[in-house]
Amino acid sequence: MRKIFGIFIACLLVLPVAGKPLATNNSSETVLRHTLKNGLQVVIIRNPLAPVVTTEMNYLVGSDEAPEGFPGMAHAQEHMMFRGCPGLSADQLADITAAMGGDFDADTQQMVTQYYFTVPAEDLDVALHIEAIRMKGVMDSQELWSKERGAIEQEVASDLSNPQYVFYKKLLAEMFKGTPYAHDALGTRPSFDKTTGAMLQKFHNDWYAPNNAILVIVGRVDPEKTLAEVEQLYGDIPSKTLPSRPVYNFQPLKADTLHLTTDLPYGLDIISYRMPGIDSPDYAAAQVLSDVLSNHRSSLYSLIPEGKALYTGFSMNGLRKAGIGFSLAVFPKGADSNKLLSEVSSVLASELKNGVDPDLVAAAKRDEISSFEFQKNSVSGLASVWSQALAIEGHQSPAEDLDAIKKVTVDDVNRVAREYLNPDHAIFVILTPQSSGKPISQKGFGGKESFAPKNPKAVELPVWAENAMGRLSIPKSLVNPVVSTLPNGIKLIVQPEQISNTVSIYGSIKSKPDLQTPKGKEGVDDVLNQLFEYGSTTLNRIEFQKALDDIGADESAGSSFSLDVLADHFDKGVQLLADNELHPAFPEQAFMIVQHQTAATVAGQLQSPDYLFGRAIRKSLLPKEDPALREETPTSVMSLSMHDITDYYQHVFRPDMTTIVVIGNINPEKAKEVIEKYFGEWKATGPKPNVEFSPVPLNKTAVVNVPDASRVQDKVILAENLAITRSNPDRYALDVANHVLGGAFYATRLYRDLRENAGLVYYVGSSFDIGKHRSDYEVNFACDPPNVSKAKVIITKDLKQMQQSNVTPKELRQAKSLLLREITLSESSMNAIARGLLNRSLEDLPLNEPTIAAQHYVSLSADQVRAACAKWINTANLIQVSEGPTPK
């Protein structure tokens, strides 16, 4: 469960003379920086990990520059950039982006608006054309804005249905009153209702200019050739005289306390501080301070093993002129939140009085050095890191921030802590969990709206896109792993990659707790996995974490385990991982604390809206006594003994059920030698357990609403069981059908009908989950309660049309192109490559399954797609489960 808590808080090279490439410490990577005559800054980073490239256009304008009373103006303009512009209609843009693999998006922040594409390297020209055309002009007509306004207001409703977002919004208003930082970039419904197309057009005319933009390009490219193409496409776009920037006059912050609710199954104590901004000379020391306070050896973290908190952490969000620091502590529902808040305050006060641990400062700096090297392992991730450094931080490269961190001293950290972590200038927040009401079953879906979607008309593409989009070739994978089986049964997969001086390990033990947990002992796997954090029989919790800190490694053990380490420390890292995985300490005192913490968390979880929403879906799809419906309860957790934990560990944690993927700068022979050295002693006893669910019958239709008082919008799932299994080749036809329905914005039917035309939703997802014995199909979306029935009618009619009529030649080609390019894009990061190999191994699929699938996709006909939909989908069986107000 602590990994979940960690996810929440996480949410909360000197460059050369222009035009000259710079070789980094990896000979295969070069950086080219150049500024065009019109002011456009261009940075091109060659990263040969995969035949993929990411372009990220950063406009130096965001919510800070929004007109008074219109906080979401920049966000609205971001949306309108996908509604078309002179020379590129919305339909053309949708078709092109779909054919390139559909991996595109945009993001608006306080001081930047970013547009990014990740595409096969062969499609770089197309991505560059799109951004050049959109920089020149946009069609911000009132008619188009009226359509898009419905979608963006659904995005607002979605965020306002998240109590944690509501908290953040209130915190900004308190923390930065009277400055542009007092609101985020989202915007409000009232402001969007007042916004006009003409206002948006003026905003684009004012701020969207080459001299107000930074273009970052990362991937397997020729930097010099790419720069020449950028010059050709962007060089004649005129620069502009930019409006004046806002002024930031921060007022002294007074201590305050906010009491709010949360729909999470646990509560949150948060102490918020105004921290130094990126422009401040104290920023680097503040980053180190944040890392020190979050370290697992810190006094703040020690509140967890002491049984005083379920989770603790510290994070910092940096803006240019100021930042926000968050101390966070998690408590179970019903616990004394004020007592925990006092504990956290005491810990922080002690840090201020006595000073931070110098060893933790050194560990934080080593961790930043490791993180810098790991940035190279993702094409899109590296583009994001460079964009952050240049467009948001105002640096010359990401290395500038690292260099500043290297210079930080212990005295710097203590001085910054004393200056900024002042309780007299902090905002204290207590978020108390609220329960859901009892799920309510209803009759029928409601709604009798008539809607008859039609097949889309073919769109003529620009000449520069037509040839590129017509390709339907089977992608050539660069993933060529070395596979072996160790004498004890471990399946070892090694994929050498020399893009960085790092190695990562991803491992998993094939298991099914619902099938392997003794009756009445539900939750044993949950408690067990948390106990790995307490070290090994060799090293206790603190000693083990110090050993990791000493080599700048990140490790996690359990039924799924991982290690990220610099290549120079691979042997030591594997030794620590194996020691934790094979010889866990399982201290009795820790067991008792974790047991009580888990029971308290589960008690809140059983009443939380999100949990009841997921359970309502499972109960609607599965038979009453199905093992997948088993759930842990406070009673089952408290019934556990230490013997139950060790017994489960001995029976479930087996090498012959384990796959380990090693990826990075490592020789396959060396990887095998080290893995066998430390994992080779692991032995399995007895026959292999059954870890496969049996088939289930088709479900009957049902309608259930899970009340959630915090939501203004309904979250909705439509789903059904399918009789098809993974061995049936029709699954490839259903993949194609799914990519006709969704996955590529306006170019696909559900997006076009629900968002572009009707404005009912911001997002709609469609997916088939086809397994060895069980399969299902689902559509998920969120919308205002009065529109749920309307959306459901549209979705049902779209599904029926897939069963009754062949998809158009254009749709078929587009869906195939999307699927084929997705295969290439799935290899654009080391994490994605390794996870793909691991998942396919655990699912007993060929490791080259993507290539096999590509061969099927290319040969499929429209008749086969329609026949598969008609055979396997039954709209009469769809269940509807919603969370929020009662749908209408």
From TrEMBL:
Domain Peptidase M16 C-terminal: 198-366, 640-818
Keyword Chloroplast in record: no
Documented EC number(s): 3.4.24.-
Gene3D superfamilies: Metalloenzyme, LuxS/M16 peptidase-like (3.30.830.10)
Start and end residues of each Peptidase M16 N-terminal domain: 42-188
The keyword Ribosomal protein appears for this protein: no
GO molecular-function terms, A-Z: metal ion binding; peptidase activity
Signal peptide (from-to): 1-23
Keyword list, A-Z: Hydrolase, Protease, Signal
Top-level class of the enzyme under EC nomenclature: hydrolase
Classification via InterPro entries: Metalloenz_LuxS/M16, MPP/UQCRC_Complex, Pept_M16_N, Peptidase_M16_C
Record-level GO BP terms: proteolysis
Domain of life: Bacteria
PANTHER family reported for this sequence: METALLOPROTEASE (PTHR11851), MITOCHONDRIAL-PROCESSING PEPTIDASE SUBUNIT ALPHA (PTHR11851:SF49)
Similarity comment: Belongs to the peptidase M16 family.
Protein name: Zinc protease
Species per Swiss-Prot/TrEMBL record: Microbacter margulisiae
Species classification: Bacteria, Pseudomonadati, Bacteroidota, Bacteroidia, Bacteroidales
